[in-house]
Amino acid sequence: MISDRLKVKIRRRVHEAEGIIALELVDPSGGELPPFDAGAHVEVDVGNGLTRHYSLCNSPQERDRYVLGVLREPSSRGGSASIHEGFHEGTCIEVSPPRNHFALDESAGHSVLVAGGIGITPLLAMAWRLHALGASFELHYCVRNRARAAFIDLLRQSPFAERVTVHCDDDGDAARLNMRAMLQNPRPDTHVYVCGPGGFINALIYVARDCAWNEANVHYEFFAASVCASGAGSGFVVHAARSGLRVDVPAGKSVAQALLEAGIDVPLSCEQGVCGTCLTRVLEGVPEHRDVFLTPEERAANDRMLLCCSRAHSPLLRLDI
Question: Which ranges carry the 2Fe-2S ferredoxin-type domain (predicted)?
Fold first, then answer.
């Protein structure tokens, strides 16, 4: 067991939508859980050494439970499939304490929350928090069809229902979200938050930039990566500075895989360049960034990289590991 893990019990499991379940996690002894901020996630141990991170979608004011929404990915490598098949009510599992790479700026004059599909989960927690603050916000929920729209009944019954607009492709072109119309008049006190498939997020980022939004006011979190295959490209050498080992990383193998095979411990979770668990300091060399975790500015600094997916432009990388 990893030392910082929390043992929690699945109190409720609900079929939320086609291919999506909601899990309500509680302390087995009935106590309070560690607090979390809107936008936070927990890493879930799914068995066989795998962990996956899922956003907390209930109100941060609640201390008695965590609620997760889990989409069964068609190309699941054992994570979401294991949860759908093996996580039942009454089962005890282990999760990390809440962590947040998608923080809400509570000082904003207005917040625009934009969700694509299962990307609704962190934005639900943000909506609950903004409502509790009495803050100005709007939530746009984009889905292909209503059968796959998780938490739709909760949104309709929520105290902020009038702030929610559902954009369903099945309802025709008029119902689809017009990102340009929504973003065409940027205000310095307005912040935008988007989560969903990579193409959806990238489209919003492109429109926001084209409409001259301040980069610092546009926040995003990918729940799955759409990055190049981590093993593609030519080979290179990694010097693990703490152990003194030099490890060949051939084409077809990630840095993390090569280091693990050499006996060097590498913290891993998503293995897709999303969560930042394997973020490592670069002491020498030029990384080839293939993640969706680092900002453009952080990538340009070339002083950190994600070992699960990124590679090297230089023949040698010296890493602080």
Answer: 234-321
* 109-148 per-residue burial string, b: 16 or more CB within 10 A, e: under 16: eebbbbbbbbbbbbbbbbbbbbeeeebebbbbbbbeeeeb
pLDDT at 1: 38
Q: How many CA atoms lie within 13 A of 165 on its CB side?
A: 15
For residue 195, tell me if it sits in a domain: yes
Residue bearing the bigger pLDDT, 114 or 276: 114
Q: Write the single-letter amino acid at 300.
A: A
Whole-number Å distance between alpha carbons of 126 and 150: 16
Q: Is 84 found in the same domain as 114?
A: no
Residue 261 DSSP label: H
Q: What is the pLDDT of residue 76?
A: 56
Query: Do 216 and 264 lie in a common domain?
Result: no
Residue that finishes a domain, picked among 222, 244, 267: 222
Of 222, 248, 268, the residue at which a domain comes to its end is 222
**pLDDT over threshold 90, residue 119:** yes
pLDDT at 77: 58
Task: Tell me: do 205 and 243 sit in the same domain.
Answer: no
Burial of 257-277, coded b for 16+ CB within 10 Å and e otherwise, reads bbbeebebebebbbbbbbbbb
Q: What is the pLDDT of the chain when averaged over all its residues?
A: 90
Same domain, 118 and 204: yes
Q: Which of 114, 169, 167 is nearest to 137 (CA)?
A: 114
pLDDT single digits (tens) 35-82: 999 999 999 998 877 888 899 999 999 999 999 999 987 655 568 888
314 with 250, same domain: the answer is yes
Please enumerate in sequence order all residues whose Cβ is within 8 A of that of 255, keeping only pairs 6 or more positions apart, or say none.
238, 249, 305, 307, 308, 310, 311, 317, 319
pLDDT at 316 over 70: yes
- Are 214 and 115 in the same domain? yes
Range of the domain at 289: 236-319
